[in-house]
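Figure 3 (text version): structure tokens given as input.
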């Protein structure tokens, strides 16, 4: 017997992002406050990859993938 399932690209869980927002902000600002600027930049790259990039793609009716060059990808679709 064959199971029928529909393949679907995983989308970010909005509640998961909201639940962690202020914790992430505190973490990043603490790094800046300590003068750990490279760590803060690395953290901002994480936010781009895990949060902002996928959300921008969803907003523009794209699959939430390929976030490395999200700025140029979305600009081309204008």
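Below: residues designed for each position.
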């Amino acid at each position: 017997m064959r199971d029928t399932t529909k393949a679907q690209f995983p989308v970010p869980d909005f509640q998961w992002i909201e639940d962690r927002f202020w914790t992430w902000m505190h973490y990043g600002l603490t790094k800046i406050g300590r003068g750990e600027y490279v760590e803060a930049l690395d953290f901002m790259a994480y936010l781009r990859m895990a949060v902002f990039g996928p959300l921008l793609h969803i907003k523009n009716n794209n699959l939430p993938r390929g976030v490395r060059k999200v700025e140029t990808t979305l600009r081309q679709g204008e």
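The chain has a mean pLDDT of 86.
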